[in-house]
Design brief:
mainly alpha, 2 domains, 7 helices, 58% helix, elongated
Length: 185
């Protein structure tokens, strides 16, 4: 079940690819120059046949603009896209890593349960920010500011108190079961 146009294009391509044609000899063109034109015609006709059959319908991204077209030229676009698509962490220049960590730092601090842990995480973050500012390795500039530890600890305590106020009173302390001790009913 082939398209007659496709069959004709294949026939012409087979005829041309075999040897130098009489037309090439008469015009003095290089052998195979006509074959290149016929190959292009064959490819174009195959594309048109596939379009009529509907082979290109329902492709992902159909009807949507091409992503990144018109943005400024970024020579590292491919690595940025790979990092975003694969959700890779820990890769990239320190300036960008610190920016992303700074955005997520409050949520990470809220997961901690002790003030000493919060202070330790903030001290480590501030140390890495200062180290990144001192290094002259190139790349984007480090614009991330160190955090004020006392202010951040106070904010963490306020957010924690607000979360506790929202919890119901009976869910405040879950019943703990000691390992190895059975209660008799």
């Amino acid at each position: 079940m082939t398209d007659p146009r496709e069959a004709a294009a294949r026939y012409r391509a087979r005829q041309q690819s075999g040897s130098e044609t009489d037309a090439d000899a008469e015009t003095g063109t290089a052998p195979g120059a006509g074959a290149a034109v016929d190959r292009a015609a064959y490819i174009e006709s195959a594309i048109q046949v596939a379009i009529r059959r509907g082979d290109f319908d329902d492709l992902p991204g159909a009807g949507k603009p091409i992503e990144g077209l018109g943005d400024h030229h970024d020579p590292d676009w491919w690595i940025r896209r790979k990092i975003e698509n694969e959700n890779l962490t820990g890769l990239g220049p320190p300036a960008i890593l610190l920016r992303t960590e700074d955005r997520e730092l409050d949520d990470q601090l809220d997961l901690l349960g002790r003030e000493s842990d919060v202070r330790h995480v903030l001290e480590d973050f501030n140390r890495r920010v200062l180290e990144a500012r001192r290094q002259l390795m190139g790349g984007p500039p480090v614009v991330t500011q160190p955090r004020d530890i006392d202010a951040e600890v106070a904010g963490w305590a306020e957010r924690r108190a607000a979360r506790r106020a929202l919890r119901p009173a009976d869910a405040e302390r879950p019943k703990r079961r000691r390992f190895g001790i059975r209660r008799r009913a």
